Amino acid sequence: MRAPSISGGAPRLGAFMNWTELKSDLAGAGYVASDELAMALYLSLHLQKPLLLEGAAGVGKTQIAKTLSEIKSANLIRLQCYEGLDAAAAIYEWNYQRQLLSIRAAGDGTNSAEIEERIFSEKYLLRRPLLEAILQETPPVLLIDEVDRADEEFEAYLLEVLSDFQVSIPELGTITATCRPHVILTANGARDLSDALRRRCVYSFVDYPSRETELAILAKRNPDLNAHLAQQIIGFVQALRKEDLEKVPGIAETLDWAAAISGLGINDLSDDPVTLQASLVCLLKTQADQAAMPVEVTQRFVGKAA
Amino acid sequence: MRSTRFPTRADSVTDRVAGFMAHLRLNGMSVGVAETENTLQAMTEINVGDPEEARLAIKSICANDAERFARFDELFKAYWMNDGRVKNRPPKKEDNAPNDGRWSNRSQFDNSSIANAPGSIDLPDDEGGGEVEASGEGKLISSKVINVNKADLREFMKPEDIAHAEKVARRLATAIRDRRSRRRKAAKKGAHLDLRKIARKSVGTGGEPIELLKRRRPDRPVHLVALLDVSGSMTIYARVFLSFLKGLIGTSSTTDAYLFHTQLVRISDALRDGDTFRAVNRLSMMAQGFGGGTLIGSNLARFNRHYAARCVNGRSVVIILSDGYDSDPPEKIAAELARLKKRGCRIIWLNPLKGWKDYEPVARGMAAALPYLDHFAAATTLNDLAALEPQLARLS
Questions:
Q1: Which of A100, B195, B207, B380 could bond to B352 as cystine, CB 3.0-4.6 Å?
Q2: What whole-number distance in Å separates Cα of residue A248 and Cα of residue B247?
Q3: CB < 8 Å to B60, chain A
Q4: What is this model's ipTM?
Q5: Candidates B64, B95, B196; nearest CB to A201
């Protein structure tokens, strides 16, 4: 099933030869993707379907959209969802101040039908991310972040936009896409998404990375780090994730911590327990978690990771 | 997992993919024609000769939630790698079952219609005896013997109760309104101006906004999370409360329900199952250990750890249905409730024992919990629950 005819002719983001090429391109831009994720992204580009990513916070769901836009040198348009997000914030809004001024400036002579036609023209339309994304000249990457935070009403509307790539504005008529953005949706389980949305999308579940993957990520992002220390850092974080924490550290936290460690001039985690303990603020983000990881425990992890 | 025998002579890629889709469906994954089409199309984009590539491709199209994502590899292997027969188990869930009606298709409970009902009734395969008797005419009769240890919730869910409970639950759910919606709707009175309408009206008055139209925040139902204690001491109330939960779940798709005894189980999906029989079957299987002891503190801890982060926020109301008799130390309940409370939710504890005359919260667990509760009330019967409406309305 190809894309609907309405936007079939609209330009879209260029495709890759095969999924391994995509994977190595992503790696080249500093994103180490799992096979599952690379294949899902590859297929979503080729089948022209949105990509839905689920997973815990901090595993790199948002980052993949940024990386894709980077390697495709496409614009990244981001719509951050929140509770109460509505059409005025996501699609379009009229510029009321200008409209009111324009009506007054017209004076008494002009008839109201003319005024109305003028103030409800594209000139007075404020484009919000969704409308902006479908009216680009070159296809952008459209990141719809944390879609599960928006209400169900919005999800239904989103489905409509994503399947037809057109927006109806009552005062103006239907605006059809000039290009077909590549859509990436992320969710982390604030509520269950509708089956209808899931079925429109290519899906991948992004998990915390394995030891090898995380090492590769760290090596990409922080190439100056010596191999032994990198091993220790990843070993420590992986051990920490197995603990019963309120907030499990994600990849972003690992990278922050690694940067902090190297910034502090530590060459071996077992060198300086006090500094190590202090640097844990990068990994443990609640007071209860910090209390649950006293020096004795962290030193045990360091011993194991070494 | 149900196994599908690999066709001895598979004809074409299309046939084999169609066969695999049937295999997925048989194992409770809802895949439709669209998925088959997409899979076939995906096959043209990849190197089909490589099974690993094919697995990744089909997975990204057919496994579209976290649970299926985890199960997919096994199913793939069983079909394409001809992994042999695996022990049969009833399908977990078939979303594409034709009847979309929720619990309301209660005609299935009438004995008359059961005899004619098409299709089979799936039963937990390892505990067929003792709970359900299938007589000669194919009627399903629930056992007269109450053996709660055998986890038979069918006994506790009767259609007439469910009907009543649904009504009560819906009224309660709508009574607890959330007044902090961020959406705005056009209204006669309200705190905010509706500029869109004002601009339009001003055309006729030369740009003077004479008529000021307003918008306001509409009330919305809150997000309800219910935790039901099904330990031995709560057995006699289980029927009422389970039906009540069923009703609550029906009010909104964001409602969540959990059972606990020594374990904690999420039952929202089971309660939402459109097929009444299968729903009760699933519940029965989940409630292994039903009627035993309780670990309220540990279960609250489990809830906090695994579920609260994503389903409890400042807009939630957590309803705990329990008598407060706990095998855990009372400090644990207090600590976990405090932790839950930090998420900004409101906590309501409905205790059947409070309905007794001269009841004092003597159970130590209950006493420890009291400071963290926004509301503590009696609830033994559905009428008690219904009577809570005005009090809960005042909570918000």
A1: B380
A2: 35
A3: 36, 39-40, 43-44, 202-204
A4: 0.81
A5: B64
